[in-house]
Design brief:
Length: 551
C-alpha cells in the first residue's frame, strides 16, 4: 500500500511539474486559469466581434497605449495601432511615411484605405451596360478632392518605383486616374500592370501586425484569436478593382463602336492578364473570386445582352464564346487560346475555393479546438471544485462538528458556492460565444452574431448546472462506494470525501494533463494551417482536396 501511495504521489507530482514547467502547457494552463475568474483574455480574443456590442474597457486601451509608446520605432506595431484606433474610413497611415516611407507595404495599405472613401471611381460610364437586374448606384458624378488625388497618385507612383514587379500599384494608380477622368493615363497604367510578374496587396501584413500588437500587449494568443483577427482585415480595394474593370468594359465598347475592334480586344486582354495575376498570386480567397468577376465584367458586351430567364452560368458561357469568336475573327488566335485556358483555370479555381472553404470543412478544426478548450475548462473547474469539497469534508469530520447536522449544511454550502462561482465565471461565455462567432462568419442571416440573442445569464446558469451536476455525480459515486463498504450514510459522505477527494482531484489532474496535451496538438496543427491558408488560400484549398491550383 505504501508503495502504491508513493507511486501515485510521484505520478501526480510529475504531472503537476509537467503542467508548470513545459512552456506551451504553462501558457495554456495559465490562460485557462485566468479565464475562470477574469474576462480579459476572452475579451482580447473576441474583441473585434464584441466591440460595438459592449463598451471597451479602460484597461484595454491603456495597455495598448503603453505598448505603442514603448515601441515607437516598431513599424508593425505602429501600423496595427493606427488601424486599430480608427474607423476604417478614417484610418490615417500617412504619419508613418516620414519614418517608414521606403516600405512598399505601407504604401499599399494607404492606397487600400484611401480606396474606401477618399479616392473612388464614381462615374456613370461604369454602369453604361449594366443588365436590368443589376442595381445602379446613384449620386453620380462625384470626384476625389484634388489634394486627395494628388497624394494618392504620388503614393501609387512611388509604389511602382519601389516594387516594380508588383501589378497592385499600377492597377490602383489606374483606379485613381479613372476617378479623375484621365483615361489614357489609366489605360497606360493597366498595360504596365499586365506585363508585371505578380500581384501583392500586402493586406496580409495588417493581420500579422494586429497579432503582433495583441501578443506584445497581452501575451501569446491562441489560434482562434489569429483566425478571428485575420478575418477583420478590410479588403475594400477589390471593389476598386471591379470598378476599374467596368471602366475598361465601357472604353472597350466605345472603341468597338468607333470601329477599332483590335484596340477593344487588346484593352480587354490587358485587363484579363491583370485578373490572372490576382487569381494566381492573391493571398486572399476574395482576390481569386474578384479576379473571376473581373473577367466576367471585361468580356461582357452590349452586343451580347442577357436573355430573359437565362441563368448566370448560361450567360457566362455565351459571353465567353462570343469573346473567343471575336478574337479568332480578328486573327488573334494566340490570345484566344490563352483566354480559353484562363477561363478553364477560373472555373477550376472557383470550384476549389467553393469546396475548400465549405463551412463543414473549414469550421471542422476551429470547432474541434473550441470543444477541446471547453473540456479543458470544465475539467479544471471540476478539479478545483473537488478540492473545495475535500477541504470542507476535512473540516466537517472534526469531532465537534461531526455529531451535528452542520456537516450536511457545509457540503450543501460548498456546492452552492461552486455553482455561484460557475455562474459568475467568465469562462462560461467564452466557448459558446466563440462557436457562435465561427458559425456567424459563414452565415448571411443578419448583421449580428446569433449569440447576441442568447442572454449571457442563460449560458452561465447552464454551465453552473453542468458543473454542479458532475460534482454531485462524483460525490454520489464516492458515497456509494463507501456505503458498499458498510459505512453509515454520514460517514460514507464525509469520510468518503475526505479519504477519496484528493485521489479524485489527482485523477482529474491526470485527465486535465491528457486533455491539455491534445489541445496543444490542435493549437499547433491549426496554427500551421492558418499560416499556409493566409499565405496562399487557393493552394491551401487545392492541397486539402488533393488537387493543384491552376497556374
Amino acid at each position: 500500500m505504501r508503495f502504491l501511495r508513493l507511486s501515485w504521489g510521484i505520478i501526480l507530482l510529475s504531472s503537476l511539474l509537467l503542467l508548470i514547467l513545459h512552456p506551451d502547457m504553462r501558457w495554456l494552463v495559465a490562460m485557462q486559469l485566468r479565464l475562470l475568474y477574469s474576462s480579459k483574455d476572452a475579451y482580447v480574443i473576441l474583441k473585434h466581434y464584441l466591440s460595438g456590442r459592449s463598451p471597451e474597457p479602460a484597461w484595454f486601451r491603456e495597455r495598448l497605449d503603453e505598448v505603442v509608446q514603448q515601441h515607437a520605432q516598431n513599424y508593425t506595431i505602429q501600423l496595427a495601432w493606427l488601424v486599430e484606433k480608427s474607423r476604417p474610413t478614417e484610418v490615417q497611415l500617412r504619419p508613418l511615411l516620414a519614418r517608414f516611407g521606403n516600405r512598399p507595404a505601407l504604401l499599399a495599405h494607404i492606397l487600400r484605405y484611401d480606396a474606401l472613401a477618399r479616392v473612388r471611381i464614381r462615374r456613370p460610364e461604369e454602369w453604361a451596360f449594366t443588365q436590368p437586374s443589376q442595381p445602379v448606384p446613384g449620386g453620380y458624378p462625384t470626384f476625389p478632392e484634388p489634394e486627395h488625388f494628388a497624394s494618392y497618385d504620388q503614393i501609387a507612383a512611388e509604389g511602382e518605383r519601389l516594387d516594380p514587379d508588383n501589378a497592385y500599384f499600377s492597377i490602383m494608380r489606374a483606379a485613381g486616374l479613372f476617378a479623375v477622368k484621365r483615361d489614357d493615363e489609366a489605360i497606360a497604367a493597366l498595360v504596365r500592370a499586365s506585363r508585371k510578374a505578380r500581384w501583392d496587396d500586402y493586406a496580409h501584413e495588417e493581420a500579422e501586425a494586429r497579432l503582433l500588437l495583441w501578443t506584445t500587449a497581452f501575451g501569446r494568443q491562441p489560434a482562434i484569436s489569429r483566425y478571428l483577427n485575420a478575418d477583420v482585415v478590410l479588403e475594400g480595394h477589390f471593389a476598386t478593382v471591379r470598378a476599374v474593370a467596368r471602366m475598361v468594359r465601357y472604353l472597350a465598347a466605345q472603341r468597338e463602336r468607333s470601329g477599332d475592334q483590335h484596340g477593344a480586344a487588346q484593352l480587354r486582354m490587358v485587363m484579363l492578364r491583370c485578373a490572372r495575376l490576382m487569381r494566381v498570386h492573391s493571398r486572399s480567397s476574395i482576390g481569386a473570386v474578384v479576379a473571376s468577376a473581373v473577367v466576367g465584367t471585361v468580356i461582357s458586351s452590349p452586343d451580347v445582352p442577357r436573355r430573359q430567364n437565362e441563368t448566370p452560368e448560361q450567360y457566362t458561357k455565351r459571353t465567353r464564346e462570343h469573346f473567343l469568336n471575336v478574337l479568332r475573327q480578328l486573327g488573334r488566335k494566340e490570345d484566344a487560346v490563352w483566354a480559353q485556358r484562363e477561363f478553364a483555370a477560373i472555373d477550376t479555381a472557383s470550384r476549389i475555393l467553393i469546396e475548400g472553404f465549405a463551412p463543414q470543412r473549414l469550421l471542422a478544426m476551429p470547432l474541434r479546438l473550441v470543444r477541446a478548450w471547453t473540456i479543458n475548462l470544465l475539467i479544471l473547474a471540476l478539479g478545483l471544485g473537488t478540492l473545495v469539497l475535500w477541504g470542507v469534508a476535512a473540516l466537517a469530520t472534526r469531532p465537534r462538528l461531526y455529531t451535528s447536522v452542520i456537516p450536511y449544511f457545509l457540503v450543501l454550502w460548498a456546492l452552492a458556492v461552486i455553482g455561484t462561482a460557475a455562474i459568475l465565471s467568465p469562462w462560461a461565455d467564452f466557448p459558446a460565444q466563440t462557436t457562435a462567432i465561427l458559425k456567424f462568419l459563414w452565415e448571411a442571416s443578419g448583421d449580428q452574431p446569433s449569440f447576441i440573442a442568447v442572454p449571457p445569464i442563460v449560458l452561465r446558469v447552464a454551465t453552473a448546472v453542468i458543473t454542479v451536476f458532475l460534482l454531485l455525480m462524483i460525490v454520489i459515486a464516492i458515497m456509494v462506494i463507501e456505503l458498499l463498504r458498510g459505512r453509515e450514510p454520514k460517514a460514507a459522505l464525509l469520510h468518503g470525501l475526505r479519504a477519496s477527494g484528493g485521489t479524485v482531484a489527482g485523477l482529474l489532474v491526470l485527465l486535465y494533463l491528457v486533455s491539455v496535451r491534445w489541445t496543444l496538438y490542435l493549437e499547433t496543427t491549426w496554427a500551421q494551417e492558418l499560416v499556409e491558408m493566409r499565405q496562399q488560400p487557393g493552394r491551401y484549398c487545392a492541397k486539402q482536396l488533393g488537387e493543384s491550383w491552376p497556374p
